[in-house]
Specification:
Elements (H helix, E strand, L loop, with lengths): L4 H5 L7 H15 L8 H17 L2 H8 L44 H8 L18 E7 L1 H6 L1 E6 L5 E6 L8 E4 L13 E7 L6 E3 L2 E8 L1 H6 L1 E5 L6 E5 L8 E4 L14 E7 L7 H13 L8
Parallel strand pairs: 1-5, 7-11
Antiparallel strand pairs: 2-3, 4-5, 6-7, 8-9, 10-11
Helix pairs in contact: 2-3
Length: about 300
């Protein structure tokens, strides 16, 4: 039988629910296996602390325990067994009453285990009503755009001090849910699951438009006028992009299947939005050329 859960958590029987939660978090951080690798004693203490919180952290279970309806393991106490052998119940002196069939000493034996086997309770855990699985916990994981496309690993921290490594699947999409088995809250029938929602962080270069990515691509005046081959970034690394002759700012060049995963095994596109950029210092020759051009060949882009 487990120790008294109040003693296990180091709290008084009058402790509030908040005090119980704080005590559990403190002990869980201290004895979690991730912080004590290979320490069997710390792992055992963590299990006991988790079991104590599973009982006291549930208001209904705590009330039943305080009233003596369940024991420290969460099992219902034996009722309907009188100490009188004539009543056919259990006799503390040894054996079952009723005269026929079976008698003997039970010293050193956990009778709750025996009755649990008889009633079929141990198939699903302990207790007549069956054990309960721990609650699922939910959280968000922010990932980089590159992680969403290529996949990878990231670490998450829970409020109880636990940290876990999460594998990001290749082609993950914004809002995708990952279910991590056995990483939820502890419970008698085992821990619940952790349900993690993926959120792709904003990128300094690429902006999202649905499944497409858009980026600004600076080009020079000669590149815009004459056309050129320029280097352009993509989530997988730089590529060479052809700028058509006579390109204007705002024109979009498409790089097929270089965007975000679409959730169906494909990818959206990447669009490079051209931005004509003048040099920081205007060269006298360029200035003279512009003056002559404006004089001899005037045009107004706003009227085009």
């Amino acid at each position: 039988m487990a120790q008294d859960p109040y003693s296990e958590l180091g709290v008084a029987r009058t402790a509030s629910a908040d005090e119980i939660r704080k005590a559990f978090r403190k002990l869980a951080k201290q004895y979690h296996p991730d912080k004590n690798p290979g320490d069997a004693k710390a792992e055992e203490r963590f299990k006991r602390v988790s079991a104590a919180f599973d009982l006291l952290g549930d208001a209904d279970k705590r009330k039943k325990f305080d009233r003596g309806e369940i024991d420290a393991d969460g099992r219902e106490t034996m009722r309907g067994f009188s100490g009188d052998p004539r009543a056919g119940g259990f006799s503390p002196g040894g054996g079952f009453g009723g005269g026929q069939g079976f008698s003997g000493s039970f010293e050193g034996v956990d009778l709750n285990d025996i009755f649990g086997d008889i009633l079929g309770a141990r198939g699903g855990g302990r207790g007549f009503g069956g054990p309960t699985k721990g609650a699922d916990v939910r959280g968000k994981a922010e990932i980089d755009l590159e992680q969403a496309i290529k996949g990878g690993k990231t670490r998450l921290a829970f409020s109880d001090g636990r940290t876990i490594e999460v594998t990001i699947p290749k082609g993950a999409i914004d809002g995708q849910m990952l279910r991590l088995k056995g990483q939820g809250a502890p419970g008698r029938a085992g821990p619940g699951d952790a349900i993690i929602e993926l959120e792709i962080r904003p990128h300094p270069v690429f902006k999202r438009e649905g499944e497409s990515l858009v980026m600004d691509l600076p080009i020079s005046v000669p590149d815009a006028v004459l056309g050129a081959k320029v280097e352009a970034p993509t989530p997988e690394g730089p590529v060479t992009l052809t700028v058509p002759k006579g390109s204007s700012s705002g024109a979009r060049l498409r790089l097929k299947a270089r965007g975000l995963p679409d959730g169906r095994g494909g990818r959206g596109d990447l669009f490079a939005r051209l931005q004509i950029v003048l040099p920081e210092a205007i060269d006298p020759a360029l200035e003279a050329f512009a003056e002559e051009w404006r004089k001899d060949r005037p045009y107004t882009p706003r009227k085009r």
